[in-house]
Amino acid sequence: MAIDVLNQEGKKLSQLELPQPFQGKVNKALIWEYVKMQMATRRSGTASTKTRSNVRGSTRKIYRQKGTGNARHGDIKAPIFAGGGQAFGPLPRDYSYRMPSSSRRQALKSALALKTKEGLVKVVDQFSFGEIKTKKALEYFKNLGLNQALLVVNEKNEKLEKSVRNLAHFKVLRAEGLNVYDILRYNYLVITQDALSKIEGRLV
After folding, report:
1. How far is the C-alpha of 192 from the C-alpha of 173, rounded, in Å?
2. N- to C-terminal Cα distance for the chain?
């Protein structure tokens, strides 16, 4: 599958063949599993409640065992009393887990293939910014017909990253950090030629 390589004015410079990872089958179930894993990994897992052993209070038996007509109770910290401990409440935990590396690789290929089939992948020769300027970045994206995009570069590009960081609908990622969640989150996937080669080397 051939795709146009565009310059900063949005004009066609040349054509190239998209690598194999962009042309495979789309496995939506695997994409869903990958996103679920990413979202689980982001959970803080800090929710915590105090059980009856953590609550401050007297351990004195609140009334005698027999003869009151009430249920048999020990201390006032039981969960059924106001100010008592929480029964079966949440405790700090780690929600993260890992899919097999082969499944993660296949899910990433599926996400790239999905964007390609939808016609939402663009390849540019480079992101060349003379200065850090958000207004210039917006002009550039307008030339490319972008309203929302994930920008994938081969290496650190400080001028691009700082020009885009205040734009809610654009994000810059380096090729090694490319992931399924960010690919799906933004409408367009815009990749530099150098980054395209790096992605191919990572997934083939």
Report:
1. 11
2. 17
pLDDT tens digit sequence for 1-59: 788 888 877 788 888 888 888 988 999 999 999 999 999 999 999 999 999 999 999 98
* Strand order across the beta sheet in which 121-124 lies: 12-17, 2-6, 121-124, 188-192, 149-153, 170-174
Phi, psi of 28 (to 5 degrees): -70, -30
Quote the CA–CA distance of 181 and 158 in Å, as a whole number: 23
Dist CA 139 CA 142 (whole Å): 5
- How far apart (Å, rounded) are the C-alpha atoms in residues 70 and 49? 28
Q: Per DSSP, what are the bridge partners of residue 152?
A: 173, 191
